[in-house]
Amino acid sequence: MINLAITFLIIAIIAALLGVTGVAGIAVEIAWILFVVGLVLSIVFWVIGRRPPPV
Question: pLDDT tens-digit profile of 15-42?
Fold first, then answer.
């Protein structure tokens, strides 16, 4: 997820430099959503992994 977020962020930066603001805005929104989802999933899996095994 984080890799995709970085990819879309790079696409947004290139699009902004080329003056394609619509594509840049959409790419930034997608990057932000993917970053948040990846962060939430990372935290959830970290918490699940910290539990003791069931007896």
Answer: 999 999 899 999 999 999 999 999 999 9
- Cα 7 to Cα 10, 32, 49: the distances in Å are 5, 11, 28
- State the pTM of this model: 0.76
Sign, CA dihedral 31-35-36-40, equals positive
User: Helices 21-49 & 2-18, crossing angle to 10 degrees?
Assistant: 160
C-alpha span between 55 and 9 (Å, rounded): 45
The number of helices, as runs of H, and strands, as runs of E, in the chain is 2, 0
